[in-house]
């Protein structure tokens, strides 16, 4: 059965956890969806995992379109979300639409962009024109040089309140999903309970509607520093398939993320 945004919304309403992984090619697309991963995120993290850059900033729209096409060709049933890369959407809603159209033409079912209230007008512009949008708040890697590093966000009461306002603004503007990255579990749970749309957490605790990890982190093959919230599922698994099945099982049961993966 094909996964749609409606499916994900219904899963969240029933409390069935959504399993998401990043995916950048056709072979992994088939493997991941065969193991029960509902959403494939063509993340701009490919700048780090595939291209060896030390941030996501150098990734281009044509890089994203290429990998989105690879994933779409290998996938029959997953819901495909593609990241709008740095510089391809921040200028104006019109620029965002032009960029999003390229990713949708490459086979994405939804585009993801980083930012909260500041992106509300852009989210409304895209969704009014038939392009589903996923928000992404908390640790937004395209802002690493403003954030001062890859670190947990929303720790102060003021920052937490701002993240809640950001999430509500994205939902109000028509976003269908929101990624919460590297925020305290208590805050992610609070945001999730105040929204009607599903939240997808990465380093945001077990209270989100779904979980996402970078594929190379969950396979233990990323050579750089991996975040505290990543878990190597190859540890104890005999194959990539078994590792992905373990990830899906642990997301569904709530066993992942455990306290050691959580802020
Ligand atoms: N391989 C990979 N995994 C990711 O999760 C990921 C990427 N790449 N690229 C884009 C961003 C960058 N991310 C990161 C990278 C590092 C940390 C990290 O090391 N955080 C430290 C805390 C550092 C601090 O507070 O100063 C940690 O302990 O988790 C977090 C998120 C998440 N995303
Ligand atoms: C980690 C996820 C949320 C992401 O944005 C990416 O892989 O680029
Ligand atoms: Mg990304």
From TrEMBL:
Q: State the EC number(s).
A: 2.1.2.11
Q: Name one GO biological process term.
A: methylation
Alphabetical list of Pfam families matching this protein: Pantoate_transf
Give the principal location in a single coarse category: cytoplasm
Task: Name the domain of life.
Answer: Bacteria
Q: Which HAMAP family match?
A: PanB (MF_00156)
Query: What function is annotated for this protein?
Result: Catalyzes the reversible reaction in which hydroxymethyl group from 5,10-methylenetetrahydrofolate is transferred onto alpha-ketoisovalerate to form ketopantoate.
- Family, as annotated: Belongs to the PanB family.
Q: What is this protein called?
A: 3-methyl-2-oxobutanoate hydroxymethyltransferase
Q: Which species?
A: Sulfurimicrobium lacus
Taxonomic lineage is: Bacteria, Pseudomonadati, Pseudomonadota, Betaproteobacteria, Nitrosomonadales
């Amino acid at each position: 059965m094909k996964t749609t945004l409606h499916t994900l919304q219904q899963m969240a309403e029933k409390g069935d956890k959504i399993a998401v992984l990043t995916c950048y090619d056709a072979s992994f697309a088939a493997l991941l969806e065969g193991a029960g991963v509902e959403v494939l995120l063509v993340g701009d993290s490919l700048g780090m995992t595939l291209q060896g850059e030390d941030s996501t900033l150098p990734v281009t729209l044509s890089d994203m379109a290429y990998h989105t096409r690879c994933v779409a060709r290998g996938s029959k049933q997953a819901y495909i979300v593609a990241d709008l890369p740095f510089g391809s959407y921040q200028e104006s809603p019109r620029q965002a639409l032009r960029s999003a159209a390229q990713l949708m033409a490459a086979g994405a079912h939804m585009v993801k962009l980083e930012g909260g209230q500041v992106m509300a007008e852009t989210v409304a512009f895209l969704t009014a024109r038939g392009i589903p949008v996923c928000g992404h708040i908390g640790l937004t890697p395209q802002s690493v040089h403003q954030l001062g590093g890859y670190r947990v966000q929303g720790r102060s009461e003021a920052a937490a309140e701002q993240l809640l306002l950001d999430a509500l603004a994205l939902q109000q503007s028509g976003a269908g999903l929101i990624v919460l990255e590297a925020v305290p579990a208590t805050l992610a749970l609070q945001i999730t309970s105040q929204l009607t749309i599903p939240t997808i957490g990465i380093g945001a605790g077990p209270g989100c509607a779904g979980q996402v990890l970078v594929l190379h982190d969950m396979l233990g093959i990323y050579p750089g520093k991996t975040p505290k919230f990543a878990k190597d599922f190859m540890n104890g698994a005999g194959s990539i398939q078994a590792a992905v099945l373990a990830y899906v099982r642990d997301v569904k049961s709530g066993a992942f993320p455990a306290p050691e993966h959580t802020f």
